[in-house]
Specification:
CATH topology of one domain: Rossmann fold
Helix content: 25-40%
Shape: globular
Radius of gyration: 27 Å
Number of helices: 22
Strand content: 15-25%
Oligomer: single chain
Distance between the termini: 79 Å
CATH class of one domain: Alpha Beta
CATH architecture of one domain: 3-Layer(aba) Sandwich
Largest sheet: 6 strands, mixed
Structural class: alpha/beta
CATH superfamily of one domain: Glycoside hydrolase family 3 C-terminal domain
Bound molecules: alpha-D-glucopyranose
Length: 748
């Protein structure tokens, strides 16, 4: 007996050593060689968990069958299963009861926090602070991994110029460069430098691609863009994500130029996997494989499964197409098994990189879960993220900041008392109603305020979430609001959207203040003009009347758990706002799409008194432009100097001076314009930004670096062209406030 035990120990150790010495690819291939066709297809199947559905649940979805499939090794991943207890239970079935014991990966939409809610992504982007964004992602990964999650469906990298589209809330706005920087920061935050670390999680660049350009701003709608727009405005953030080792990519729901992304072999195989050499795996978005039949691209589910696997979609989220049809497709010779093998390799590689084969329960530590989720407080970091996301849009007569001794304040608006909306739409496991409200934030400074809802709200149960419905038409609270406004020295009005009026499937045709809030604003203004408008919203809103009449306007988005404290610290001056808009605010929905990096046209402003590109009833410019954001102090820009440090490498320096009487942080932005090119280029393109904090009177030199390639653009074949000629180099405090110019000439 002893001899047998010794032999077993030696063989296990030698197997373990042999495993250790093998590369991941060797381990993957060795495992693949032992898998049956059913087991291979199983790795390509992702099921939704057993309770929260984040999409339309297919008829055939049932828990019993899912458990059975896991037991038989016919499932590679699940989503929306979280909590160590649930994760371990499912992982144990997969690892101990299936033939090969291949561990599952557990995915979830950890978009801006898991338990600690950070600002929604568009608000995070408004901070233009990549360290802060990375830190929030790091904390999200720490919390999510403690709860058994090892894969997040984030960052969303969909550039969008259309605020009617509800998912602008989830992205980083209208610019490809800023979106790429935000994406890189989030991938670093989620994945760290070692995916095998138990507190890192795999990231997912989504939605590939073009999802942010739906016709008419309607979610899931058709996308039809030129290859020039695709390569220059839509794909760069995804390319940057791949270059920064994003582990996974998610298909977009939409048709892209006639072909659904999930079945778009040119997009996924040619561009992503071949040209960009993406080594991770691609997951469909919910039922996007099956939806190809609805699009009219696939005959049926069977055909959709063929098109999807041929196009490089490696994993099927919740459409059951791969589970039901791939085996027949292989057996009939319609699909080559080599395509399945490639998909399986990609998925197994990530599982090996995560260390799941070494320890399938590394994310299932009950004590660790308790320490992180119950005994660790990230409020400080959540507050810092929220503070940096706030954008001061307008501040006439320096109405803000309010004095800390300010008396006789009226606070009006349902959102001032809303502890749930600030958590945003994708709130993961943030506790409902756990945000600090504006009223609570103000109460830290003073109790000398009176509150009135104004536009009365009705709490209604919408499915599984109660939402404060501010789409109400109920004006019965107006009289009380007007009464308190009349007596007040200053009025803080908190208006905007409920958190479920932006996000997935929340497109709006009119992006003004919902319900009767605009009427409320005007009614209050009629009796007292001393108004600070605080916006709480998940998208740019059309607020032209407020922009013209209201002296101070603060963009406060949906700032997460510490919302009320951040807003109050800005209003009372303990924090000098530094945010800059990541997306233009249109004057009217009729202007959409309005964005800063537009082309000049042949008839720009000034071309002619009548015959030029304009509207007869409104200006061309947005109400607030990309990159706009004020401070409680002022800054001067001077002394721009361009130097070619070596062939094809440039530095651009300038001086920024704080000319006001408070310390403040400015975000100078670097823009270029390729004046003449073989493909017309935008009047401005963001190519750099930095943050500089200055005390009153202090000056600092800032420096940007440009490579020759930064001056290039992609042709419709995806080739990067850098053409000789003149380039305008601009530095500004926003895309519409250019303060320094110089010129760069490329001679070859
Ligand atoms: C949703 C979203 C996608 C999300 C997925 C899983 O439909 O489009 O962004 O990651 O389903 O919840």
């Amino acid at each position: 007996m002893k001899k047998i035990v010794i032999i077993m120990v030696i063989s296990t150790m030698s197997f373990a050593c042999s495993q250790k010495s093998k590369s991941i690819d060797e381990k993957v291939n060795e495992l693949l060689s032992r898998m049956t066709l059913d087991e291979k297809i199983g790795q390509l199947v992702q099921y939704n968990g057993f309770w929260d559905a984040t999409g339309p649940v297919p008829q055939e979805s049932n828990s019993k069958r899912k458990y059975n499939d896991v037991r038989q090794g016919l499932v590679g991943s699940v989503l929306n299963v979280y909590g160590v207890e649930q994760v371990r239970k499912l992982q144990e079935i997969a690892v101990t009861q299936s033939r090969l014991g291949i561990p599952l990966i557990f995915g979830m939409d950890v978009i801006h926090g898991y338990k600690t809610a950070f600002p929604v992504p568009i608000a995070e982007a408004a901070s233009w602070n990549m360290q802060t964004i990375e830190q929030a992602a790091r904390i999200s990964a720490t919390e999510a991994s403690a709860a058994g999650i090892n894969w997040t469906f984030a960052p969303m990298l969909d550039v969008s110029r259309d605020p009617r589209w509800g998912r602008v809330m989830e992205g980083a706005g209208e610019d490809p460069y800023l979106t790429a920087q935000v994406g890189i920061a989030k991938i670093k935050g989620f994945q760290g430098t070692d995916l095998s670390h138990s507190q890192t999680i795999a990231a997912c660049a989504k939605h590939f691609a073009g999802y942010g350009f739906p016709i008419a701003g309607r979610d899931y709608n058709t996308v039809d863009v030129s290859k020039v727009t695709l390569f220059n405005d839509i794909l760069p953030p995804f390319k940057a994500a791949v270059e920064n080792n994003v582990a996974t990519v998610m298909n977009a729901f939409n048709v892209l130029n006639g072909v659904p992304c999930t079945g778009n072999s040119w997009l996924v195989r040619d561009v992503l996997k071949n040209t960009w050499n993406f080594k991770g795996f691609v997951v469909s978005d919910w039922g996007s494989i099956m939806e190809m039949a609805t699009h009219g691209y696939a005959q049926d589910r069977y055909h959709a499964a063929q098109l999807a696997i041929e196009a490089g979609c490696d994993m099927d989220m919740e459409s059951y197409a791969y589970r039901n049809d791939l085996k027949t497709l292989i057996e009939k010779g319609v699909v080559k098994e080599s395509l399945i093998d490639d998909a399986v390799r990609r998925i197994l590689r990530i599982k090996f990189e995560m260390g799941l084969f070494d320890n399938p329960y590394k994310y299932c530590d009950k004590e660790h879960e308790k320490v992180i989720l119950q005994n660790t407080d990230y409020s400080k970091e959540a507050l810092q993220s929220a503070l940096e996301a706030i954008v001061l849009l307008k501040n006439e007569q320096s109405l803000l900041p309010l004095s800390k001794n300010q008396k006789n304040i009226a606070v009006i608006g349902a959102l001032a008392n809303d502890k749930d909306t600030p958590l945003g739409n994708w709130r993961a496991q943030a506790v409902k109603n756990s945000a600090v409200s504006v009223l609570e934030g103000i109460s830290v400074y003073t109790n000398d305020y009176v509150y009135a809802q104004g536009a009365l709200v009705h709490t209604n149960a919408a499915g599984f979430i109660h939402t404060v419905n501010i789409n109400t038409t109920d004006k019965s609270g107006f009289a009380q609001a007007i009464a308190v406004a009349k007596k007040a020295d200053v009025i803080i009005m908190v208006l905007g959207e409920n958190c479920f009026q932006s996000g997935e499937a929340r497109s709006r045709s009119d992006i003004g203040l919902p319900g009767v809030q605009q009427e409320l604003l005007e009614a209050v203004y009629a009796v007292n003009r001393n108004i600070v408008l605080v916006l709480m919203n998940g998208r740019p809103l059309t607020i032209p009347w407020a922009g013209e009449h209201i002296p101070a306007i603060v963009e406060a988005w949906q700032l997460g758990q510490q919302s009320g404290n951040a807003i109050a610290q800005v209003l009372f001056g303990d924090y000098n706002p530094q945010g800059k808009l990541p997306m233009s605010f249109p004057r009217s929905v009729g202007q959409i799409p309005v964005y800063y990096n537009h082309l000049n046209t042949g008839r720009p402003e000034g071309f002619n008194k009548v015959f030029w590109s304009h509207y007869m009833d409104i200006e061309n410019t947005p109400l607030y432009s990309f990159g706009h954001g004020l401070s409680y102090t002022t800054f001067a820009y001077s002394n721009i100097v361009l130097k070619e440090t070596k062939k094809g490498e440039y530095t651009i320096t300038a001086h920024i001076t704080n000319t006001g009487n408070r310390t403040g942080t400015e975000t100078p932005q670097l823009y270029i314009r390729d004046v003449v090119a073989s493909v017309v280029r935008p009047v401005k393109e963001l190519k750099g930004f930095t943050k500089v904090t200055l005390s009153p009177g202090e000056s600092k030199q800032i420096e940007f670096k440009l490579q020759r390639a930064d001056l290039g653009f992609y042709t419709e074949t995806g080739k990067l062209n850098v053409e000789p000629g003149d380039f305008e180099i601009m530095i500004g405090s926003s895309s519409s406030t250019i303060l320094l110019n110089t010129k760069l000439t490329l001679t070859e």
